[in-house]
Amino acid sequence: MHPVRFFAVIGSFALALAVAAGPVSGADSKEVDEKDDAARLLVAEELSKLAAFCAEKNAPAQARSELELALLAERKTREIAARIEELRSQTGSPPADFGSRHQEEQKKAYEKCTRALLELAPLLEKESPERFSACLDLLDRFPGTNVASRFDATFFEPYSRWIPAADARRLESGSEFVDGKWLERAQVTALDRSHATWKDPWVVSDGVHEVRTTLPLRTARQLLSYIGTYRRFLVRHLAGLWEIAPPKGGLLPVIVTASQADHRARWEAEPRTAGVPLNGGAACYLVSSDPLNPCFVTFEPVLGEGRVAKVPLEVVLSALTHEITHQIVFEHAKPARKERDSGMNAWCVEGLAAYMQQWKLERGRWRLERAARNVPLGGGRFTTLDPAFAWAKEHEHALPPLSRFLAIPKEKFYKLENYHMAGTLTWFLLEGEKGKYRKSFARFLELVHESQDDEKSFSTCFEGVDQKVLQAELTRFVAGI
Ligand SMILES: [Zn+2]
Fold first, then answer.
1. What is the pLDDT of residues 403-445, one digit of tens each?
2. Which residues contact 437 (CB under 8 A, 6 or more apart)?
3. Fewer CB atoms near the end CB (10 Å): N or C, the chain?
4. How far is the CA of 200 from the centre of ligand 1 (A)?
């Protein structure tokens, strides 16, 4: 066990976007908490009832869609996720009048949900900018709520959240809210300069992750917002399959640097990386049996040809998504983790990260990117984002046989084409064939991430599945990309 490093904490992200509201008494705060809880519960329950109506009328797809919306209320999650899993494999043809009946029932349910959220939002605006944003985000999913004009709010893309329009204008002018007050751009720049060394870096936290950086506060907060949004998405994405929870006893560090030299220096300053070579990407995470292992992120990675290059934010976010997937699932699964290494099944660890890496955050929503894209880096150089599925499609007639791929030992796994194949295979096992392999694959993911796997784990988890059939289904899935 190594001691945790301490840095000065300047401001807290929870306050970062707060409007200049007066102090809120504990009693009010408790009441608002209760109202928030009640409104979210109401949304979860109303939409569950609506989904039950759809399912009863033989419309499982519509039922699922209502439940996907219900999941966003973050109440009764286990129950809702389990129901979504049941519905996933079902097909049905609803009666001719279903469309109009559904519309009627949906209108009633949506009205109840929006009424509760519309009452709640003004209370949260004073109480908690973060929950205000979450409430507006949920409201915005219901048609006709006109969140922006009704609350004079703006979706501030860099922080991926709804905020009062006046605050958005301040942020756009370079101001930041620090330690309870708004600072002008020049004051922020001066503060950034004072936190530009590792003696006293910026440290911002959301209660689960902690970003430490000598880069500007705007970058620190932007990355923290992305990480928090992604973490909630990942947990929701796995809900009903694999229950993971944030580790207790500390924050998950993400150490962000501007230069390759600084990246290397931070890696070497971390005692638990001793003797482990740093890889070249824009982000890395070292799994160890110690708690709270950090993720290292840089805006100046080493590219394929061995030269360093400055890369834009989207390249950093892509690498970060891969590595924080590792960090979240390993650190969240840690209580059950064994102190051993099977030396195999690396494909499922990398497959999950490579698959999740292709989800893109756009205006608070997640979209799975199917196509690869080259990002120019100047000087005629470029780097390729989201290559996994495009690689599989390109090699659809020459994919490695599963029997061979699944048996690749860990020491031989770490080649680009294996990452691409693993990412595509993960996508297929989660979403292909109406999700019939989801539960088996989730069990396998859990075993491997807890280091409880061995060479028989795949066949045990996929008992009764003919690998020839699996291969044919995968081929068909890839043909459809
Ligand atoms: Zn990886």
1. 999 999 999 999 999 999 999 999 999 999 999 999 999 999 9
2. 428, 429, 430, 462, 465, 470
3. N
4. 30
Please say if the pLDDT value at position 393 is more than 60: yes
Closest CA to 455 of 357, 366, 347, 344: 344
Q: How far is the CA of 280 from the centre of ligand 1 (A)?
A: 12
CA pair distance 172, 158, nearest whole angstrom:
10
Residue 293 pLDDT level (bands cut at 50, 70, 90)? very high
* Residues forming beta bridges with residue 450, ordered by sequence position: none
Cα 473 to averaged position of ligand 1 atoms, centre (Å): 26
pLDDT digits (tens, 9 = 90+) for 235-278: 999 999 998 888 888 999 999 999 999 999 999 998 888 888 88
Q: How far is the CA of 353 from the centre of ligand 1 (A)?
A: 6
Report which of 320, 316, 438 is spatially closest to residue 377, judged by C-alpha positions: 316
- The pLDDT score that the predictor gives to residue 193 is 97
Please give the residue that has the higher pLDDT: either 7 or 269.
269
- Ligand 1 centroid from CA 421, angstroms: 13
Full set of structural domains in the chain with CATH: 21-145 (no CATH), 182-336 (3.40.30.160), 362-479 (no CATH)
Quote the mean pLDDT of the chain.
Answer: 90
Give the pLDDT confidence score for residue 335 in this predicted structure: 67
Q: What is the pLDDT of residue 185?
A: 97
- Of the two residues 88 and 15, the one the predictor is more confident about is 88
How far does residue 9's CA lie from ligand 1's centre (Å)?
Answer: 30
Contacts of residue 82, Cβ cutoff 8 Å, sequence gap at least 6: 240
pTM assigned to the model: 0.92
Pair of tokens at residue 2:
């190594």
CA of 289 to the centre of ligand 1 (A): 17
CA 284 / ligand 1 centre spacing (Å): 8
391 closest CA partner among 417, 414, 425, 412? 417
CA of 52 to the centre of ligand 1 (A): 40
| Backbone CA torsion sign across 220, 221, 222, 226 | positive
Q: Give distance in angstroms: CA of 11 to centre of ligand 1.
A: 32
Give me 45's structure tokens.
């329950």
Using the mean position of ligand 1's atoms as its centre, give its distance from the Cα of residue 162 in Å: 32
β-pair partners for 156: 161
| Centre of ligand 1 from the C-alpha of residue 44, in Å | 35
In this prediction, residue 6 carries a pLDDT of 22
Burial of 307 per CB tally in 10 Å (0-12, 13-18, 19+)? exposed
Distance 350 CA to ligand 1 centre (A): 5
- Residue 287 is predicted with a pLDDT of 82
